[in-house]
Amino acid sequence: VARRQFAAMDCFNSSARKALLAPDKSEVPSKSMHVRVAGRLVEAWNDEHFAKLRAAHNVPDHFLDQTNHQVSVDFTAPRAESSAGKGGHAQYDSACGKFVVKALSGDDNTMLLKLAGSLVQKLLSGSTLLCPIYLHFVDPETEKAYMVMRNLTQAGPWKAKYDLKGCADDKTLEVDGVPIQPVRRRFWRADMWLRCAWTPDRWRYYEGKQQARALRLGMAACHRDDLVRMIKTDADWLISNGIM
Predict the structure, then answer these.
(1) CA distance 78 to 189
(2) Report field, pTM of the whole predicted structure over 0.70
(3) Whose CA is closest to 209, among 44, 93, 84?
């Protein structure tokens, strides 16, 4: 489930990246300054597209503005999940808990600029597991780029929360409300290749990966068919755009 939080803009197929990041003269990204985040105007990119999704989901334009003197987003306090991804880019919870603000790398920012229209059209179709993205903006003060997603795992604490990709990257993110800190085995870490040298945190991370990979979800056949269909159509869209 948690994987949906990152599926839209997680990583890119290196063989297609060069072509995809090339300038596209047919659709020039637009920029506007009518959206406020944390009390100040930001540079909103392609908001003619993302505004349609916000309207469809009853999300107001200034959903991340300050209310009752409360800071809507604290950019000094990244969420725990920031350390779970390999990209290393920070994530922040909104004060209401309904949204996640994620810092974007240069490639991610360029791809979102390029695919905004197609992505919003896909999200508006309703038959998708991709996480809704409601805003793509640049903070004029820091010149950092961000996107704002719906927080699909707002409730908690969780008995167990997983990041499932259907491959060796499957992992457990949380057990009994306690986040699992990633302790990855890297080729330059000789101690990580000797199990006798593993720390308790490394064992916990490893056992969580084994548990995630062995997970089986029981569901009715009709629900499974719907799920498989949406995964396929989402994968087809991602592949057609060279993502993942």
Answers:
(1) 27
(2) yes
(3) 84
